[in-house]
Design brief:
93 residues, mainly beta, 4-stranded antiparallel β-sheet, 3-stranded antiparallel β-sheet
Length: 93
Amino acid sequence: KYHLLRFDENGKMLAKVRMNNISEPSQITWDGSCLWITSWYSQKVYKVDPASFRVLGHFNSPAKDATGIAWDKGYFWITGTYDDLYRIKVGEK
């Protein structure tokens, strides 16, 4: 039901992968190496490998029902319906 699509610079679709491991994916951002996808249903933010589309990890979203996510200079900015704006620093384990 939910897919990630990859296109080339001319708009030709290169890949279409069904997202089975993320329940109700809604928002997406790019940190320069990985995709980050929110799930308003599970209230999590998932780290996804752009080459294999495998989920590499996740963290709990501070915003209930995340409706916006962006990446800027080492921080995520996350907001939700009727919620505040959160700045999140995600570190490596």
